[in-house]
Amino acid sequence: MIQISQVSLEYDTPSGKVLAVDNASFSAAEAEFVCLVGPSGCGKTTLLNMIAGFFAPTAGEIRVGGRAVNGQGLDRGIVFQDFAQLFPWRTALGNVTFGLEMKGVPRAERERIALEQLRLVKLEKFAGAYPHHLSGGMQQRVAIARALAYNPGVLLMDEPFAALDALTREEMQRLLAEVWRETRKTVVYVTHNVAEAVYLADRVIVMTPHPGRIRAEVRIGLERPRDPLSVEFLEHQRQLLRHLTHKEEEK
Amino acid sequence: MRALVSIVIALACYEVIARSGWFAQALVPTLPAIAGTLWAMLIDGSMAGHAINTLYRVFAGLTLASGFGLVLGFLMARYRPVEGFFLPLVSALMPIPSLAWAPVFILWFGLGNTATILVVFYAASFPMVINTWSGARAVNPLWLRAAGSMGAREGAMFWKVMVPGASPFIITGLRLAFQRAWIAVVGAEMLAASAFGLGWVIFDAKEFLNADIMLASVAVIGAIGFVFERLVFGSLERSTVLRWGMVRAAKA
């Protein structure tokens, strides 16, 4: 579904060229949940933004659904970390219908679909509410519904729960796992939270910074729903942490 | 309520001064005298005629200025060369009081509505240009990214993201533009209007020492300005940017 082949991104700064992503390759199969994990500066968000088509890599190629990515497209839905991503002048329902409106779907039809999406994230009761009346977690759920409404094959998520409190975050992770199970989207999920990656992902891509490189790929074969307190879960977490701190040991 | 208290106290102070005998009654008429004149002018319809003329000039100028300011402001925010060309012009022209142009416009267009509306247009344009331009640049880039990933092209991006996204600035711009237009129109009417308008009434009444007519007109000018500021722009704000949580309500 998603094919990243030898992708690099280099940009100029006043102090010279910076290699944000160095020769990264990975793929995500249809309906697979892939997490990109790493500390800040490892290029995980940059990589996600390139898949989203916000900018192009300086080398390499990104293919989504067999087609080379060239700019933004309706085949990919995106959810950001910032709650402010919702349009404050539109209700929850109005936010979710936006993509369908752009697609030219008739009003009644798009409202029906949007309500369905809001039901999926358990917010159908808040369809008429403006974003500023919703909590952070609710706003992020609206953002997920909005990204799913026009039915893209791929869902790209950039630390969507990082700004939430720990309890809400766990609740959101459970909800997302459920949404994913029902919608079977291909997900690329960026996070710096190792436990979150183990909880959500089929496969975790570990990245390290300076320059941003893929360090390892770890398959998470655990049964769902996963128990974050189980020995196997903690074992996977430890394994990821080992990869993340690997570079420091080399020095 | 608190607004009413302030106004009543200010009026009471005026009344004390007017009745103190320090000034000639003809120059500083008492409130009942002003109210009587105002009532007479309201009854015979002359005040309404003047107010309608003034409002017509203000809204003609304000409409032109809003259209012009919105278009130029968005173009400046969107295209760097447009910004580069117009920003110095705006900076140079903005500090010139609009009334300084009144004699020039009278020379070019004669006495009457054209010159007055142009003065209003001049006064109201700058807040609209500056605020639209600032508002467009303050639009959250995440909204543009989100809209773009949902397939919004140039047109939808403008009407469904840029315009509502910039609306807090635009509404503030409209408010400022109205205030400046309302101030400018009275001055412009004193110079350029012949026979109608609230500004003209004040100027004309000076010739006959009719302080009561002057003050009655001032009261009407204040009242109309107050109504627009509070009711029209206040409710515009409440039904849009306040409702959307894009600006916060002032603490009561």
What's the arrangement of secondary structure elements?
The complex is a heterodimer of chains A (251) and B (252).
Chain A: E1 2-13, E2 16-28, E3 33-37, H1 44-52, E4 59-64, E5 67-68, E6 76-79, H2 92-103, H3 107-120, H4 136-149, E7 154-158, H5 166-183, E8 186-191, H6 194-200, E9 203-208, E10 213-219, H7 231-250
Parallel strand pairs in A: 3-8, 3-9, 6-7, 7-8
Antiparallel strand pairs in A: 1-2, 1-4, 4-5, 9-10
Chain B: H1 2-19, H2 31-43, H3 46-78, H4 80-93, H5 102-109, H6 113-137, H7 141-149, H8 154-165, H9 167-192, H10 198-207, H11 211-239
Helix pairs in contact in B: 2-11, 3-4, 3-6, 3-9, 3-10, 5-6, 6-9, 7-8, 9-10, 9-11, 10-11
Features:
heterodimer, A: 251 residues, alpha/beta, 7 helices, 37% helix, 26% strand, B: 252 residues, mainly alpha, MetI-like fold, 78% helix, globular
**CATH architecture label name of the largest domain in chain A:** 3-Layer(aba) Sandwich
Q: Which CATH class of the largest domain in chain A is shown? A: Alpha Beta
What is the end-to-end distance of chain B? 11 Å
- Helix count, DSSP H or I runs of 4 or more residues of chain B: 11
Low-confidence stretches of chain A: none
Label the structural class of chain B. mainly alpha
Quote the beta fraction of chain B: under 5%
Outline of chain B, from the CA principal axes?
globular
The CATH H-level superfamily of the largest domain in chain A is P-loop containing nucleotide triphosphate hydrolases
Biggest beta-sheet profile of chain B: none
Task: Tell me, rounded to a whole number, the average pLDDT of chain B.
Answer: 90
As laid out across the biggest beta sheet of chain A, the strand order is: 6-7-8-3-9-10
